[in-house]
UniProtKB/TrEMBL annotation:
Residues 63-159 form the DOMON domain. The chain crosses the membrane at residues 255-275, 282-302, 322-346, 358-377, 389-408. Coiled coil: none annotated. Residues 431-441 have a biased composition (Basic and acidic residues). PANTHER family: DEHYDROGENASE, PUTATIVE (AFU_ORTHOLOGUE AFUA_8G05805)-RELATED (PTHR47797), DOMON DOMAIN-CONTAINING PROTEIN (PTHR47797:SF4). SUPFAM superfamilies: CBD9-like. Residues 1-22 form the signal peptide. InterPro entries: Cellobiose_DH-like_cyt, DOMON_domain. It comes from Apiospora kogelbergensis. This is Cellobiose dehydrogenase. Residues 197-238, 417-441 are annotated as: Disordered.
Amino acid sequence: MFSLQRSAVLSALASYATLTHAATQQTCPTTDVCFAVGVPQQSASSGSGNIYFQIQGPTTYSWIALATGTRMADSNMFVMYQDGNGNVTISPRAGTNHQMPVLDTSSTAAKLTLLAGSGVVDGGKTMRANVACSNCNSWSGGGSMQLSSTSSPWIAAWKAGDSLATTDKDASISRHDDVGSWSYDLTKATIASDANPFVDAGGRSSSGPNGGGASGGGNGGGPDSTGPGVIPSSGAGGFQSAREEITRLQRAHGIIMALVFVVFYPVGSIVMPLLGKWMVHAAFQFFNFVLMWVGFGLGYVLSQKTFMNVASIQGFRETHTLFGAVIVCLMILQPIGGSLHHMYYVKHQRRGIVSHVHIWYGRILMLLGVINGGLGIELVRNGGGGGTGLIVAYSVIAGVIGLLYIAVKGFSSFRKRRGGDARGPGAVADRPARKEMSNAS
Ligand code: HEM
Ligand SMILES: *[C@@H]1O[C@H](CO)[C@@H](O)[C@H](O)[C@H]1NC(C)=O
């Protein structure tokens, strides 16, 4: 028992020693697709110059791509596929949002050079690109990367399928099966000389997750092959389950928010003139308010996982996430306004300005919430997460409830006006609860 523990500690120390010696940083966001990066000392200190990276995976993939950035849009992409002659093509592309990136032909395009050790290896089973990039510190679309950053964001994508077998750098590729994102501590990826770190002096592959050696590479995948400083977004190896988790979060967030904004809030508002019980209104809307925050929490976690709300200035790059956060925050005033209205009403037996504010503020926020739900569905739809059917169904339901809402409000204010005329002011005193309700809701 004791010796077992000690050997575990020793082997942990040994692997730590190997990793701290590591010249390159590497990660395998899925078991068989691996990437590595090395930054020459000189480039790190001057902030520009060559960096080296490696892309490797089985030839059962049609293409494998690595990119700098946090998401497709505005990233600097390097797409690798077989060239049909036993080697690989490496294609620099400028990331656009959720569409096929095309070859970057601008003057700021990444200058990539394929190096020794690249090619289709392992008897045709593996393809590998060892690449030098001379200008990857900044790129088309205004992106840039600090070569000495301790958390430099990288993304990747891969697609299983037939070999593209082309040297055309602008070949069409189809959408990825899966994607990954992580950050590298580039200060741990420093290499002494400005030379291909993925081969040894004799030109033999010296690194790479399947090559073992210099970078302390593991066994081609799994959590162990990611060194310190490599933070796979979802834990390497667990990528598939991370995707499933995102889908679950999307469903939970979407369903809760749609129920709250499209159904519950309007119903909570409609039932008032119908039931005339302010307590029911207040309790139900407060329940919805809490549920809305649960939905917001799920959305927040989701945005962290999908990089739609990465920390710092890049946060809230999607209208939906920004707009949603603003709406739920503005909603905080609604229970307060409701209480103020109620107190005012109890005292004066009529609506005050605060009542109108409560009513219209609530209506506007409900409407904005419904619209923002549509934007959210669009986001998922961009991601191929749902058909047009979803947005149609959502719009129809929202429309029907909207009409119902207007009809009930119109009817109750009509009834109230008529009732007021018929019964005179005394009627109000008879039924204060009902009067208040039709005002409050
Ligand atoms: C035909 C080419 C491509 C199409 C049509 C496409 C489309 C999409 C779509 C619809 C999404 C959102 C939903 C999802 O996760 O599936 C997405 C996300 C993503 N794609 Fe692509 N993509 C392409 C190529 C690439 C390439 C070459 C990379 C290279 C790294 C890449 C990296 C990513 C990443 C990291 C995400 C998640 C972050 C984000 O939403 O931007 N994609 N892509
Ligand atoms: C692939 O091309 C690179 C760059 O020209 C070269 O160094 C490498 O040896 C080639 N690989 C094979 C397997 O021919």
